[in-house]
Structure formats: C-alpha cells, structure tokens
Specification:
It contains seven helices and six strands, in the order H-H-E-H-H-E-H-H-E-E-E-E-H. It is of the alpha+beta class.
C-alpha cells in the first residue's frame, strides 16, 4: 500500500511539474509575442517619425535661399576674390557645401538674417559659397584646401588671407546649437579669423 501511495504521489508530482513546465512555456511564448509586437510598433513609430522629419526638412529647405552655383568656375571666382581682398584688406571665407545640404542653407540664412553677424562678415570678409554637389564637385579646388569636406562634412569653412593663403579650416558642427547655430560661437569664429585680429 505504501508503494502504491508513493507511486500515486510520484505520478501526481510528475503531472504537476509537466503542467507547470507547459504553463511556463506558454507564458514565455506569450511574453515573446508581446515583445515582438512591441518592437514592431516601435519600428513603425520610428519609420513614421522619420518620414515626418524628412518632410519637414524638405519644406524648410524649399523656403531657404539657395546660394550655391554648381555652374560657376570656382577657381576663377576665388582668384577674383583674392584680387578684391587685397584691394579691400579683407580675408575670404569659403563656405563649402551645396544647395542639397540643409545645414549649409541654415547657416547662410542665419548669417544673412542676423544683422550683427552680417555686419561682422561684410566688414571683414569676402564670402563665397564653394559648391560641392554631384553636378560639380570642384575636386581640384577642394584638393587645394585638403578636401575638408571629407574630414568634417558640410558645411565646412575655409578661411583664406587676402593673398589666398589657407589660414584656417572650421568644422561647422562646433558652431551648432540645437537645430541651428549659436550666436556666440559663430561670432567668435568670425571675430577670430578677421584680418588684423
């Protein structure tokens, strides 16, 4: 009788353990389904958010002035600017980038619409938008200045003295503030590389 009771207890225990294991497996499967469903939702939300951001950026880009000219001979233009800089005792800033680059357009617009910065630039520099785009990469001109876009991305600023000698290359990322640019940092950059500073 003792063996029969032990056998019943053992059988019941085995059934209970199997049942718990199956139950646990079902719970694990449900948990995994929930995790998968959640990750799909997050991916869908991220895709939607990315599309909204792209649309907003395209709308902003469409409204901003397009200062880059992919048809212009950059070498000839810079040579003209050097002569003018010598006559006016100014340095030259080459803002390298293109009309495809929202940060390039934002910077241009920021300088043009901020009187304090516009005056600082107009008083001290000749400013040129050096085009880099699939239509015209200006490879020879960029090579002359060490291909700064390869290192820093766009926009990147090349500062030349009045004789056309490279005196500074500026990464634009350090001038950023949120989705725009910092007045203090941009002003400091323009002030530091002005002639006679």
């Amino acid at each position: 009788m003792k063996n029969k009771n032990n056998l019943k207890i053992f059988g019941f225990a085995s059934l209970l353990i199997t049942s718990l294991a199956c139950s646990q497996k079902t719970e694990d499967t449900k948990a995994k389904e929930v995790i998968v469903d959640t990750s799909l939702t997050v991916k869908t939300d991220s895709s939607a958010a990315l599309e909204v951001k792209k649309k907003m950026a395209a709308e902003e880009k469409a409204k901003l002035p397009k200062p880059y000219n992919d048809k212009e001979n950059a070498e000839a233009k810079i040579a003209e600017l050097v002569k003018q800089a010598q006559a006016e005792n100014k340095n030259i800033i080459l803002q390298a980038g293109g009309n495809w680059c929202i940060w390039c357009l934002r910077f241009n617009n920021y300088v043009q619409t901020t009187p304090e910065l516009k005056k600082l630039v107009d008083d001290n520099y000749l400013y040129y938008h050096l085009n880099y785009s699939p239509e015209n990469k200006n490879e020879k001109t960029f090579a002359k200045y060490g291909n700064p876009g390869d290192k820093f991305g766009y926009p990147v600023f090349v500062v030349l003295d009045k004789n056309g000698k490279l005196i500074h290359t500026q990464d634009s990322a350090v001038l950023e503030d949120g989705k725009g640019y910092s007045l203090e940092k941009v002003k400091a950059f323009f002030t530091e590389w002005a002639p006679n500073s």
